[in-house]
Write a structure and sequence with these properties.
CATH architecture of chain B: 3-Layer(aba) Sandwich
Strand order of the largest sheet of chain B: 3-4-2-5-1-6-7-8
Number of domains of chain A: 1
Largest sheet of chain A: 3 strands, parallel
Helix content of chain B: 55-70%
Number of helices of chain B: 14
Number of strands of chain B: 8
CATH architecture of chain A: 3-Layer(aba) Sandwich
Number of helices of chain A: 11
Shape of chain B: elongated
Shape of chain A: elongated
CATH class of chain A: Alpha Beta
Radius of gyration of chain B: 24 Å
Structural class of chain B: alpha/beta
Helix content of chain A: 55-70%
Structural class of chain A: mainly alpha
Largest interface: A-B, 87 and 95 residues
Radius of gyration of chain A: 22 Å
Strand content of chain B: 5-15%
Distance between the termini of chain B: 8 Å
Strand order of the largest sheet of chain A: 2-1-3
CATH superfamily of chain B: P-loop containing nucleotide triphosphate hydrolases
CATH superfamily of chain A: P-loop containing nucleotide triphosphate hydrolases
Order of helices and strands of chain B: EHEHEEHHHHEHHHHHEHEHEH
Oligomer: heterodimer
Number of domains of chain B: 1
CATH topology of chain A: Rossmann fold
Distance between the termini of chain A: 20 Å
């Protein structure tokens, strides 16, 4: 869907507008991070994984690194922590909370995983909150849930101008709404057609005056345009505003991000 | 180039989000189903998109036969996975007694686990796949997997759950009666863990893990069965992606992971490559529309050239036969279009 490119483009825009910006990627199980050239953006980029976030959380409680190492370097405990239900998502969300708490004026952009799995980022802390009514875990989880549901946290859904992704976006929103009262921004409809200079040809003219590959070119354009209009109508019927992001022919990821960032500024 | 699937029984379709995996899985299903194979398409993507691609308005979680008046010979069944209910069935399968089953299913933490444990979708999917494999009702089973990063979860989720239920961890949690079994270092570390997570959290876990006693061997053996299935020559792993730098980098990582796991990638599908067009003669088009048309042609040509460049980079880095699929100017929720696409994948253009 281009979530990472849009998150990065928004971060670039934020920086241009004078904001302190953090770009956060979500990597729960400490696999090798997505190898995109984030360094070229010149924005602080954090890759959060479960083990590191848990280590930081443990250090904040135990204070002594030696004690933390004794716990986390233990094979049995490591095995348990990797698989304990909801714990990974909760400690990562806790780290994001910490980041926003320490930098109240900063813009923190979190690039979440694809739809079905993004839900667990929100549902894990909310599920744990229901389970623990008191104690240390309760206090931590409560802070995380407050952050997630605060008006200063915006969920920015990204979709494509096609039937299946639009349905998926609506399902994701519905699922999230069933978990809590989140705040949503307009849907970024990625990979739309850009505007071309000159006067667009009418369908009638295209039918009568174009032949061969010229006609095929127009048909391709027209089908994509119709899909875009359909997608926007469906989202609009569900009360969702959309922001179109053009599909660009940039050769590299970084140039795409820069161009999308500029288009966001002008939209 | 033809894609010989006669010796493959399971076709795992993996790749990042938004590249058209679901559509390709459905297309392949329709095409194989029309070639006389008893075909099943199983979606493990938590987003329920396959139903749409196959033209269902309502898609039940169980099996649903795909019917088409235009293709009476079509032998295709689709199945949607509901991980919440399916996980209950897994517990039922491994529970040693009705009492154990009841206790687990009513446990509050278990319910939260099922709702929020990321890996449970994948685990339940692999369980379902193993069931279909052993039933022998199908000649071809196509699995539409979650996006790339989560496709790795597909391989690793059963392992994580098996680890979670590791014997040594379980023993400690069973009211700590097994504490003496550990080395002194682990005993001390466990006590500190109690301080970090709080006793309530650990008590809840102790309760659910205690209830799961005796089931760990079942979970572990299923994990081994899944890995064996993935490495079996009758299983084809197919990576679907798009020809761009972002997709290139993550696909190469994914390919390397498969190599490390000794899983063969059967095909690389570079989907939705934009066609380029040459402007032909046109009559009486106003000059400003000529400019517009020329810009439109230039745009598609540039897209095409960039994608060709990345397609070549893909084929140089990933030593697997590749199929390039052109972006179609038609809706893919129509079964005729799906069949054409499926035929194109198998027979080549």
């Amino acid at each position: 869907m281009g979530k990472s490119a849009i998150a990065s483009a928004t971060a670039l825009l934020g920086q241009r507008l004078g904001k302190k910006v953090f770009l956060v990627s979500w990597n729960p199980f400490d696999r090798e991070a997505r190898p995109l050239p984030y360094h070229a953006l010149g924005i602080p980029h954090l890759v959060l994984n479960g083990p590191d976030c848990f280590r930081e959380y443990a250090l904040s409680i135990l204070k002594f690194e030696k004690v933390v190492n004794m716990v986390l370097d233990n094979k049995v405990i490591n095995t348990f922590l990797t698989a304990a239900p909801g714990l990974t998502e909760a400690v990562i969300a806790g780290k994001i909370w910490d980041l926003t708490d320490k930098n109240p004026d900063a813009l923190v952009l979190v690039d979440l995983p694809a739809s079905g799995h993004a839900v667990s980022f929100f549902s894990s802390p909310l599920g744990l909150r229901k389970l623990f009514r008191m104690g240390l875990v309760h206090r931590e989880i409560e802070r995380i849930c407050e952050m997630m549901l605060s008006p200063s946290t915006l969920i920015q859904l990204v979709s494509l101008p096609e039937e299946l992704p639009v349905t998926e976006t609506l399902e994701l929103k519905k699922k999230l709404e069933s978990l809590g009262t989140f705040h949503f921004g307009p849907v970024f409809l990625n990979q739309c057609l850009p505007l071309f200079s000159g006067k667009p040809l009418s369908i009638e003219d295209a039918k009568t005056k174009l032949k061969g590959e010229s006609k095929e070119l127009f048909d391709q354009y027209h089908t994509l345009l119709e899909q875009e209009v359909d997608a926007m109508n469906v989202l609009s019927q569900e009360g969702l505003k959309t922001r179109k992001i053009p599909r660009l022919s940039c050769p590299e990821w970084i140039t795409t991000v820069e161009a999308v960032s500029k288009s966001l500024e002008h939209s | 180039m033809n894609w010989d699937l006669s010796k493959r029984r399971i076709i795992l379709i993996g790749g990042p989000g938004g590249v058209g995996k679901t559509t390709l899985a459905a297309a392949l299903g329709v095409s194989l189903g029309m070639r006389g194979y008893r075909t099943l398409v199983l979606t493990v993507d938590p987003a329920r998109r396959l139903a749409q691609a196959l033209g269902f308005k309502n898609f039940s979680q169980s099996l649903q036969k795909v019917e088409s008046a235009d293709f009476p010979g079509l032998n295709l069944t689709a199945s949607m996975l509901d991980s919440e209910h399916y996980f209950d069935k897994v517990i039922e399968r491994f529970a040693r007694s009705p009492e154990q089953k009841k206790k687990i299913l009513e446990n509050r933490l278990y319910r939260t686990m099922v709702e929020s444990l990321g890996g449970s979708h994948e685990y339940a999917a692999m369980e379902r796949l193993l069931e279909f494999v052993s039933s022998e009702d199908y000649d071809k089973i196509i699995v539409d997997t979650p996006p790339t990063q989560n496709a790795l979860d597909l391989l690793q989720a059963p392992q994580r759950l098996a680890n979670f239920m590791d014997n040594s961890v379980l023993k400690w949690f069973q009211k700590q009666s097994g504490l003496h079994l550990f080395q002194r270092g682990t005993q001390a570390a466990m006590k500190v863990l109690q301080k970090i997570l709080g006793s309530e959290f650990l008590d809840q876990l102790a309760s659910v893990l205690g209830d799961l006693e005796g089931m760990q061997a079942g979970f572990r053996s299923r994990h081994l069965a899944v890995m064996e299935l993935f490495r079996n020559p009758s299983t084809a792993f197919v990576l679907v992606t798009q020809a761009s730098e972002a997709r290139f980098l993550e696909s190469v990582e994914f390919y390397k992971t498969l190599l490390t796991e000794n899983i063969l990638m059967d095909r690389l599908i570079l989907n939705r490559i934009d066609p380029s067009f040459q402007l032909g003669p046109s009559e009486n088009i106003p000059a400003d529309s000529q400019e517009w048309l020329s810009n439109l042609q230039k745009y598609f040509q540039e897209l095409h050239l960039v994608q060709q460049k990345w397609a070549e980079a893909f084929q140089a880095a990933i030593k697997t036969p590749a199929i390039r699929v052109e972006r179609k100017a038609a809706l893919m929720s129509d079964i005729h279009t799906l069949k054409r696409l499926g035929d194109e994948l198998i027979e080549g253009r």
